[in-house]
Amino acid sequence: MKRIVNFSSFNVFSIEKEIWDIEYHNHNFYELIVIESGRGMHHLNGVSFTYKKGDVFLLRPSDAHEFSIRNRTRFIYIKFTEQYVWSNLLAGKKDEVSKMIQLLIEDRSFVYESAIRNKTDREHLLLLAKILLQEFDSKGLYNKEVSSDLFSAIMTIVIRNNIGKGKEQISKGLNSTEKILYYINVNAMDPRKMRISHLAKEFMLSPNYISIYIKKQTGFSIQQHVMQQKIKTAEKLLQQSRYNINEIADQLGFSDASHFNKIFKSYKNRSPSEFRKNEQTV
Fold first, then answer.
1. CATH for 2-166?
2. Domain range annotation of the chain
3. Rounded to whole angstroms, what are the CA distances from 60 to 69, 104, 198?
């Protein structure tokens, strides 16, 4: 698979295409893609779905994708690094907004469809993206500062749509259990962050206590909460992706397809193959 490498910490540009001529690829940067016009299909991490004007896709470095264009499409690309976010977005932000930006770019869960759900926000974000594009190209006085502020506004709108529920909860004040469960839900696909030692350090608790605490408060162990998220993701991949069972097992971190089959069946009372076949015939 091709890997596109970008050496700039922040870049904004637009392209217009009738035929997509870039092979399936991933990057060494984050990418916000805004659909200014056109229609087609977006193939992301093996899942295919339609796109239209106003859709916004947030891609992380590990994400692989390509487009299939039906109607001539104009894309606005905003490429940025994690270093740029830390240096330009998080400084001066309220704690809750900073936390949500970090969660957004660190989120390892599978996000396929447009990150913008609200109709008014779609219109506003598209307008902001156009202004950002013009400002970035202008090279005028304070253009870097203005571009940073515009990008910050765009990311805040994405946050409001993509993890709005989490933002609302954080703004109201999550209790300890809710904070831990939210962190697990967001990072369930990242083995490093799901280590008990890492969770304990993140929430300033002892490894033994955090395990006992979650079990006591929810009735399920941390490992069970992680597995529930993996099963939800497995369902989506089985329903929407072109991955075979072995590939899905690998994506979700199972040792092999046999282990994946056994765990999936224990949760859903049918094998992954049976689940996929049933879903495709519905």
1. 2.60.120.280
2. 2-166, 176-282
3. 22, 10, 22
* DSSP helix/strand/coil, 148: helix
Torsion over CA: 166, 170, 173, 175 (sign): positive
90 with 101: CB under 8 angstroms?
Answer: yes
Q: pLDDT tens digit string along 125-141? A: 999 999 999 999 987 88
Q: Give 161's contacts (C-beta < 8 A, 6+ positions apart).
A: 115, 116, 117, 118, 121
CB 36 within 8 A of CB 77: no
Domains 2-166 and 176-282 share a fold: no
- Which residue carries 């698979």 as its tokens? 1
Question: Could you write out the DSSP letters of every residue in 176-225?
Answer: HHHHHHHHHHHHTT-TTTTSHHHHHHHTT--HHHHHHHHHHHHSS-HHHH
| Both structure tokens of 173 | 């004040």
Task: For residue 264, give both structure tokens.
Answer: 């999936």
Closest to 251 (Cα-Cα) out of 91, 115, 39, 64? 64
Longest dimension (CA), the chain: 63
- The pTM score is 0.59
Q: Is the pLDDT of residue 110 over 50?
A: no
The helix/strand/coil state of 13 is strand
In whole angstroms, how far apart are CA 193 and each of 118, 124, 158, 202?
Answer: 31, 35, 24, 9
Percent of the chain's residues with pLDDT above 70: 85
Neighbours of 246 (CB within 10 A): 13
* Topology of the domain covering 176-282: Arc Repressor Mutant, subunit A (1.10.10)
